[in-house]
Write a structure and sequence with these properties.
Order of helices and strands of chain B: HEEHEEHHEEHEEH
Shape of chain A: elongated
Oligomer: heterodimer
Number of strands of chain A: 12
Number of helices of chain A: 13
Number of strands of chain B: 8
Largest interface: A-B, 29 and 32 residues
Strand content of chain B: 25-35%
Radius of gyration of chain A: 34 Å
Order of helices and strands of chain A: HHEEHHHHEHEEHHEHEEHEEHHEE
Structural class of chain A: alpha+beta
Shape of chain B: globular
Number of helices of chain B: 6
Largest sheet of chain A: 5 strands, antiparallel
Radius of gyration of chain B: 16 Å
Chain lengths: 402, 205
């Protein structure tokens, strides 16, 4: 707001200012002064318009008579100002200094929202013996903030609805998928009679594809549960090296299939930790699987070491480095977004939901940790999972649904 | 040099009590305005030369800070500041307005104004306590709300005048339902004002 803006509304008058006091009539804020007894001594044009009371009628009256709705806090602030203590009355805590209709009607704001400042006024002795009240109409601003709040609430509700939908749908899909996979296994094991050689391969395919689909549904389910704040944490004492070793052993067949080197670097001393073993295992498995997926030659190295959180607390750092295609810097943050796989065109060469890294970061954060990535295009990427050595997340009671 | 050593435990305790009375008065006023129960903890007090205040507070605060500053004059003169970490300040403003300010966790204009009022009430209550003790009025200017680093704040408080500047730090905690917010008050005064305050305290105890 410039001086020009403030003076603009009523500065069209060709008359020069007669007295300095008349300046108040040019300002787009309410100005009134009171003496030590809280009797009004001046009342500018803005006040006349907002209250529909001329200055002649207001001056000389006690403020309480003019504004019976004046709160005790506002009256105390006025008295404080007459003793030298300035005050702010924020509209969010006080709504308004006095009641007036809003200039622009809205569904939620029928009355003018006011921001008020009360400044001590010095008397002849130099000591405070009165107060200047400055009232600003902030209805527009409050209206904009309310629109923003509504938009945020709507977005949050939509996000929750999406998570609920994903969770419900995944449950619905998981049950029949489990049945398909189970019946294929039973057929292949000849529980329903002999299987001819020509049927073996199709049965094998049904099993593989349904298990793959089940894995994707599980991933969506975990993502949806964490998003909805329904994922429970089960803490237990464990050893970080064992966690990493188990994940590497589990993923090794994938590396062998692509003829990739998979190295494991463990510290000499054990680094015990209190965490959710299943969730850390899943995050590590996802990081390793992702590294293998995007690496065509060379290999993947997994390591673990003692570290510190940003706050200086003991932590455990798992690092997965690959010699893959790398991620351009502008896509590095996006890889943690759900359903993203770096560059979209590039991504769809690789199977998966694009949820692996998003779920891993969610799980890390759930345990009070974080996953970060660095990468050089053409040389490879490094993903670092850092977790507090002792998670402080309250252990869950009972079992997580689903 | 840490100035706390110049004063004995009894004087520091008396100063803590003076702040405590002001903080409780402020908590009561805020509880009335917000219709919520707001509590404060007994403050811890340190006194440092102004150049050393930053080093001490750096151990207690990090990141951007919401600061509410008010100049004061009269029986004692200086600057008083309330400091709260920015995210905590946003949460405090949000809770005090039942979610109407600091939408999305940001210090929007409404939140800044709410914090200015909170600061005004807290600082005003504590500074008025000094005035009451000295039996002389203390005048307090309109509060100024900013988001800044500790370094930037301290540069603005470091008055390069002849009188050695001191910072009286009062560390407290505001409680609002389950929310606990650490708040730090700095009263930056010259040696003359500090001596006057401490002498009055000594005579009172």
């Amino acid at each position: 707001v410039t001086v020009g803006d403030v003076l603009a509304p009523q500065s069209a008058s060709p008359r020069p200012l007669q007295r300095l006091e008349d300046l108040g009539d040019l300002l787009d804020v309410g100005l009134l002064t009171v003496d030590r007894d809280l009797v009004v001594r001046s009342w500018n044009r803005w006040m006349e318009t907002a209250t529909r009371r001329p200055a002649d009628d207001a001056v000389g009256r006690p403020i309480r008579e003019l504004f019976p709705e004046l709160t005790l806090a506002a009256e105390n602030a006025l008295r404080g100002a007459t003793e030298g203590v300035a005050a702010v009355l924020s509209h969010r805590l006080h709504r308004c200094f006095f009641h007036a209709p809003a200039a622009v009607a809205s569904d939620t704001l029928a009355t003018m929202q006011q921001s008020t400042r009360i400044v001590p006024l010095a008397g002849d002795s130099g000591a405070a013996d009165g107060a200047l009240v400055i009232i600003e109409d902030v209805t527009d601003r409050v209206h904009r903030e309310e629109e923003l709040r509504d938009a945020v609430n709507t977005a949050e509700a939509a996000n929750k609805a999406k998570a609920d939908f994903l969770a419900a749908m995944s449950h619905e899909l998981r049950t029949p998928l489990g049945a398909i996979s189970g019946y294929a296994d039973l057929l292949r094991d000849e529980m329903f009679g002999p299987v001819v050689p020509a049927q073996r391969e199709p049965l094998e395919r049904i099993t593989i594809v349904s298990k793959h689909l089940l894995g994707i549904v599980e991933e969506i389910l975990v993502y949806a549960r964490v998003e909805a704040g329904r994922e429970l944490v089960h803490l237990k004492e464990t050893d970080s090296a064992t966690l990493l070793r188990d994940a590497v052993l589990g993923i090794r067949p994938l590396a062998l299939k692509k003829n990739l080197q998979l190295d494991l670097a463990l510290p000499d001393a054990t680094i015990p930790m209190t965490t959710d073993v299943r969730k850390v295992g899943q995050a590590l498995y996802n990081l390793l699987g992702n590294a293998i997926k995007f690496t065509e030659s060379g290999g993947v190295t997994a390591s673990v070491r003692a570290a510190e959180t940003e706050e200086g607390a003991p932590a455990v750092e798992f690092v997965v480095t690959d010699t893959g295609c790398g991620i351009p810097p502008e896509h590095l943050d996006r890889v943690f977004e759900p359903f993203e796989q770096g560059e979209t065109g590039h991504a769809r060469k690789h199977e998966g939901t694009g949820l692996g890294l998003a779920v891993s970061r969610q799980l890390a954060r759930l345990l009070g940790g974080e996953i970060t990535a660095s990468s050089v295009v053409g040389k490879g990427s490094t993903f670092t999972l850092i977790l507090p050595q002792r998670s402080t997340v309250a252990p869950a009671e009972g079992h997580s649904p689903g | 040099m840490m100035a706390t050593a110049r004063y004995g435990p009894a004087e520091i305790d008396a100063l803590a009590e003076l702040f405590n009375v002001g903080l409780h008065r402020a908590a009561a006023a805020l509880s009335d305005i917000t219709s919520q129960r707001i509590v404060v903890e007994m403050p811890r007090i340190w006194i440092y030369e102004i150049g050393e205040v930053e080093q001490r507070l750096n151990q207690l605060l990090e990141g951007e800070l919401a600061t509410i500053s008010q100049a004061f004059g009269g029986a004692v003169a200086g600057d008083a500041v309330l400091l709260i970490e920015e995210d905590k300040a946003a949460e405090l403003a949000k809770r005090m307005t039942a979610g109407e300010a600091a939408i999305n966790g940001r210090l929007d204009e409404s939140a800044r104004e709410v914090l200015a009022e909170i600061g005004n009430i807290v600082l005003g209550a504590c500074l008025s306590g000094f005035g009451d003790m000295l039996q002389l009025p203390v005048s307090i200017a309109i509060p100024k709300m900013s988001v800044q680093t500790l370094g930037s704040l301290m540069r603005s408080l470091d008055d390069s005048g002849d009188d050695t500047q001191y910072g009286v730090i009062a560390a407290t905690r505001f409680g609002l339902s389950e929310l606990k917010v650490d708040g730090y008050l700095i009263v930056a005064v010259g040696a003359t004002s500090l001596n006057r305050m401490m002498q009055s305290l000594i005579h009172r105890t």
